Amino acid sequence: MENYYLFVLMSIFLIILPGPDTAVVTKNTLLCHRIGGIKTSLGILCALLIHTMAAVLGLSAIIVKSAILFSIIKYAGAVYLIYLGAKILWSLMKKGEKEEVHVMIPDNEKTPCFKQGFLTDILNPKVAIFFLSFFPQFVKPGSGTVFPFLIMGITFTLLSAVWLFIYIYLIHHISALMKKPVAKHLIEGITGSIIIGFGIKLALEKAN
Predict the structure, then answer these.
(1) DSSP 156-171
(2) Are 71 and 147 in contact (CB under 8 A)?
(3) Which of 124, 166, 179, 194 is the most buried (most CB within 10 A)?
(4) Are 163 and 78 in contact (CB under 8 A)?
(5) Which of 6, 49, 13 is nearest to 138 (CA)?
């Protein structure tokens, strides 16, 4: 493996770019507070580790090369993202004090934050494509890929964890300042729309 520090620097810039994971973490942090964001992040990190092992074992290459497998995973992920976004928007359409209280103070135990984070990342085949297109750039020609891919995957996951926990901290404290229901509903509506947008974008994308 070569240029490890360059890999770390590039990974940091890529990780902080907004994506489906960021949108889901934002939504669950706003709805379920800090614990919801942490559970969602843990689900995402578990999925990243699985993607790492898939890249190491060569499974990601199979998925990328198989149009059928790629399409199945891609559309499953797209449908799930659209479902999450639509669920948020539907909850905001419900009027009345009871519905508003339910939206504002959800039951953390009933909100599958971990599962939402895990499925959002594991059902995104673009992550597999990213690993297989980004990681080889930092491997010496002619050398093995198993150990370098494993190191890079773990590094990428750890950097993602640091960023997600910082992001959750910021979102939690920003949301604490937004006491008015209208402000929270606006943010939830925007987040739901963004998640649906990412779902549609994923469905329209093709493997390179």
Answers:
(1) HHHHHHHHHHHHHHHH
(2) no
(3) 124
(4) no
(5) 6
Report whether pLDDT(52) > 70.
yes
Cβ neighbour number for residue 193 with a 10 Å cutoff: 15
Q: Which two tokens stand for residue 83?
A: 């479902």
Measured from the Cβ of residue 141, the count of other Cβ atoms closer than 10 Å reads 6
pTM: 0.75
Q: Which tokens hold the place of 8?
A: 């770390």
Distance between CA 133 and CA 152 in Å, rounded?
13
Measure CA 70 to chain center.
Answer: 18
CB 41 within 8 A of CB 88: no
What 3 state SS string does 56-108 have?
A: HHCHHHHHHHCHHHHHHHHHHHHHHHHHHHHHHHHHHHCCCHHHHHHHHCCCC
Q: What are the extents of the domains in the chain?
A: 21-204
Mean pLDDT of the chain: 78
Q: What is the pLDDT of residues 63-115, one digit of tens each?
A: 667 777 777 777 877 887 787 778 767 776 764 444 444 444 444 556 689 99
Judged on CB neighbours under 10 Å (0-12, 13-18, 19+), 144 is exposed
- Most distant CA atoms of the chain, gap in Å: 65
Nearest Cα residue to 26 out of 189, 154, 149: 189
Burial of 113 (C-beta count, 10 Å sphere; 0-12/13-18/19+):
buried
